[in-house]
Write a structure and sequence with these properties.
- This protein is α+β, with helices and mostly antiparallel strands.
- The chain has two domains: about 425 residues, Orthogonal Bundle (ADP-ribosylglycohydrolase fold), CATH 1.10.4080.10; about 150 residues, Galactose-binding domain-like (Jelly Rolls, Sandwich).
- The strands form three sheets. It has a five-stranded antiparallel sheet.
- Helix 5 crosses helix 6.
- The protein is globular, with a radius of gyration of 25 Å.
Length: about 575
């Protein structure tokens, strides 16, 4: 990374950087000017260069969410101190269980199965059948779909109070990665998949992000990338106003991102006129606009330095793992996989499977190549061979045609769209685990039995998909639990016969989700023996686990009721991961 920053310091401007990188075939040629061919303006993109940049775009998403994960919504209305930024470790790249990445793969899979002309209602059925846990606009939209409210109404503010939230924005990266130089394809995909859960600025954010990716295959100047994407959304929208503001503030303060952050804070955090449709107006801010501003902050001020891009978008706060993920995705696309610093790709596990998807990283790249070939031809382009026999995409240049202007706080009429009985019969989401007394999932007991026989579990909530993990954090057979709600802990319990004349120790090997923490409480015989906040955020899996030995000798010769408590703290990613629960007497 130091070497990469040295190159940036020597070369300086984005234009000079592009020229320097253009020398190597692996890096790909410099961005191409639009040329007139066959009486039409086109852009040419070698297929090999497309693949190199598209792979880098996915890697950028994984890197940004991997490094930013532990900070998500920990800093709201405040810049994250530099010393609180997680240190990057190459192993962090393997983000196969991040909803910030795998949810958008539902849309990729729909396109793979049904093509770009997939009906909106089919897209809704596929999303309704997804099995992962969701929040905010995604959750409300999917609940609507499962209840028979078909798109576009599933994302309409009348049915979805989260319609201006960040959801489609954080899932839209795929759209630009399969539509290089095709902004109208990006816009169309936003109208298709963004409508499932969002409306107005909530959709525009996704179309804007997709537009940045689409342009990043041809342009390296961050400001020009942002300007190109801005043309993909209605100019009169508050989202477009926000991005124009960030561009102007960057011009005024080109070396001071924190000054621009403060200006964003004053207008888009504190001014209620810009939070009229925010689902939360007092605590966190998950509105698409302000989080989109933080992405642009990283893109502009990061100057194509991967490390700086991630850190600036992350340190801006709020949704500080989604935002660096998208910022890095765009910037990494401009760089290309071959030119990425080794620390972002050396530890990539090619066999890792993205949760709730059929895709490994190589399979994802293969599917994206298949889709982009369809996208180019569908848009009136073609694939031809150059003088060396290498395939080249010939992509028609087209001016973006933004969606119509709509606002969540003054929405237009609903479409009164409902699924037919036949369509409802095709909505068969994976069944929710059966709930027992106290709200716990019945099958969680079977998972616990595989980790620690003889223990019982109560009040385990459904968030974060609790259950048995075949592998997690470098360990096998790990139990994941989650509190029932923000006020009710998940409790593991057992009656322990503590032998007389021996020292009996309860050994616990536990970990927190890197994005959150929880309080571990151990009680025996009604006495609290241990209370500790589990907050091990290390990217190194070997250092992730906390081992606690709790002495039960005070109960020698008696039976003690022992409880292990997964206690919620701030209600942010409160899962506990249990690799060992064992008793030893000697």
């Amino acid at each position: 990374m130091r070497k990469f920053r040295m190159i940036l310091a020597i070369i300086g401007t984005p234009a000079a950087l592009t020229a320097a990188w253009a020398a190597g075939a692996a890096a790909g040629p410099a961005p191409r000017a639009i040329a007139a061919t066959d009486s039409a303006a086109v852009r040419r993109l070698p297929v090999a260069e497309y693949l190199d940049k598209m792979k880098a775009g996915w890697i950028g998403q994984m890197a940004g969410v991997g490094q930013g994960g532990p900070t998500e919504f920990k800093f709201k209305g405040a810049i994250i101190p530099e010393d609180k930024m997680p240190e990057w470790k190459p192993q962090m790249i393997n983000q196969f269980n991040q909803d910030d990445i795998y949810v958008e793969m539902t849309f990729v899979e729909t396109l793979e199965k049904h093509g770009f002309d997939v009906p909106l209602r089919q897209a809704g059925i596929d999303f309704a059948n997804s099995g992962y846990p969701l929040w905010h606009a995604n959750r409300a939209g999917r609940d609507n779909l499962r209840a028979g409210v078909a798109p576009p109404d599933s994302g309409h503010p009348q049915f979805n109070k989260h319609a201006d939230d960040i959801d489609y924005q954080i899932e839209s990266d795929y759209s630009g990665l399969i539509a290089p130089g095709l902004p109208n394809t990006v816009i169309e995909l936003g109208e298709k998949f963004g409508r499932l859960m969002n409306y107005g600025d909530g959709i525009y954010g996704g179309q804007f992000f997709g537009g940045m990716y689409a342009e990043a295959f041809f342009e390296s100047d961050p400001e020009k990338i942002v300007q190109a994407a801005l043309r993909c959304i209605p100019a009169a929208s508050q989202y477009a106003e926000c991005i124009r503001d960030v561009l102007e503030w960057h011009r005024r303060n080109p070396a001071d991102w924190q000054k621009t952050w403060q200006l964003i804070e004053e207008k888009y955090q504190k001014n209620p006129a810009y939070r009229r449709a925010s689902c939360n107006k007092s605590d966190y801010n998950i509105d698409a606009k302000i989080n989109g501003a933080y992405v642009v902050l990283g893109v502009l001020y990061g100057n194509r330095d991967p490390d700086a891009t991630i850190k600036i978008s992350c340190r801006a706060g709020q949704d500080s793992d989604c935002n660096p993920s998208s910022a890095a995705g765009v910037v990494f696309t401009t760089i290309g996989f071959a030119r990425l610093p080794a620390e972002y790709k050396s530890a990539l596990n090619p066999e890792g499977k993205f949760s709730h998807t059929p895709y490994t990283f190589p399979k994802l790249i293969e599917v994206c190549e298949k889709l982009v070939r369809q996208a180019v031809v569908r848009a009136g382009g073609r694939v031809e061979k150059d003088a060396a026999g290498q395939e080249v995409f010939v992509i028609p240049a087209a001016e973006p045609k933004p969606s119509r202007l709509e606002q969540c706080w003054e929405p237009g009429p609903i479409a009164d769209s409902k699924f037919t009985p036949e369509e409802m019969a095709r909505i068969k989401p994976p069944p929710e685990p059966a709930k027992g007394k106290g709200g716990q999932a019945v099958n969680i007991q079977a998972a616990l039995d595989k980790v620690a026989q003889g223990w019982k579990i109560e009040k385990c909530g459904p968030d974060m998909d609790p259950g048995l993990r075949a592998e997690w954090g470098g360990k096998k057979s790990v139990l994941a639990t989650h509190p029932l709600n923000r006020d009710t802990a998940c409790v593991l319990s057992r009656q322990v016969d503590v032998p007389a004349g021996k020292k009996t120790v309860l050994r616990l090997v536990v970990a927190n989700d890197p994005r959150g923490d929880f309080d571990l409480i151990v009680r025996a015989g009604g006495r609290e023996l241990l209370k500790k906040t589990v907050r091990v955020n290390a990217g190194d899996e070997a250092a992730r686990w906390l081992t606690e030995d709790v002495d039960l000798s005070a109960f020698a010769g008696r039976t003690a009721a022992v409880e292990l408590v997964n206690q919620p703290t701030g209600w942010t990613f409160e899962a506990a991961y249990w690799a060992e629960i064992s008793l030893k007497s000697e």
